[in-house]
Amino acid sequence: MSAIRTSKFLSLVLRHEPGKIGIVLDEAGWTDIAALLAACAAHRVAITRDELTEIVASSDKQRFAISADGTRIRANQGHSVEIDLELPPAAPPERLYHGTVADALPAIRVEGLTKRARHHVHMSADIETATRVGGRRGKAVVLVIRAGAMAAAGHVFFRSANGVWLTDHVPAEYLELPPQRGAGTGSRAQKIMIAEHTLAACDSGRYVSARHEIVDLTYAIKRATRDTVLLDLASYPVDPEDGSYPPHVMRKRVLETAISVTGESTIEALRRLVANHDHVGCLNFASAKNPGGGFLDGARAQEESLARSSALYPCLLTQPAHYARNKANHSALYLDLAIYSPGVPFFRDDDGGWFDAPIECSVITCAAPNAGALREHGRVHDDEVAATLQRRSRFVLQIARDQGIETLILGAWGAGAFGNEPTVVARTFRELLELRNFRGWFREIVFAVLGGPGNPNHDAFVAELGDLRVLRIR
Prior knowledge:
34% of the residues lie in helices and 20% in strands. It is built from 16 helices and 21 strands.
């Protein structure tokens, strides 16, 4: 019998059916090893002591434990027979995970997670383990359990010897469940759940792809967060007035730049472009005061989409001064600040699907002036908004050029909730791109304006930029 089949047989008799081979478990689940081996042999499952020791040591989930004196063995958890594992209560992490399948969700929505024939509900501290467990019965669905809130409400948790978390019952109100059919992936609850799973992947440095493979993010996140910097236009190198070669730019120019306006999201454009371009960058339409905007609350704008799909949020958290200075400034024009994060790993699509492998994109995080708020309070004139937009757009292009970004994804920056006129935004970028300062520095610039033809922002950008197919060095 193979080691896997032997391990499954041991799980059966030590967890569920000790009487199948005539052994007896004590009240804590232990049985004598010599008696176990003899009973197995009598039922044509011959196991030597060395083989048993190897199975216990090599079990991927550490399913079994041998007593300190080496005479007894038991399963670590998962029993359906009446036993007491004598585990002390333990304080769980804020979030735990449970792997299941879609067919089980209707009952879970009503009952929560119940132990059924087992002694406890089983939970994992990481997403990948929960995914593997759920995948035994089909395509895995991973549920997030607000374990910290449960413990605060008086629910008791235990942790088995092999790291599995146990509790008697998880009420439905403590579960983050996928939306019911018809609710749509665009629902706020779904976006909150995606954000939580993304943060868990960033914290653990790993996620499980759609192929059920563990993908490591540790080095990519460490590098991106380490190299993230805050840039201030006031101290940034100034370009020559005549548009000649900036002495601080150490790179070669290209003969022409392709310009396009598409109906894609930023992430869709990134996935399309990254396969054939060396250094892709994008502009994050940032909140000036909150890293990631409202992505933890299920908001739907461009920054929130980027944060849900990548390790951008941990990068932004390294620069608290950006947000503190803007809050202290008390102006919706905001400050001429930007955060540059090189090689941010992106690993989810707009709907929360996991990539088979992460892709990297350098991100320029910069807030447009909030024209809508300024007009509402009558605190600034349109010409001041336009001047700020022009100055800050130029700053964004300078950063992209100076950091060696070859392919740049822009869009209707500030033309959504911030109320800037899309025609003004598009014209500002066109005028800047036609300057000598920016000709020949980018191979391709894509204005990804979600919505496509018929969307006011998209149509405004096509009207302003549609004839600007190629920029050439003059």
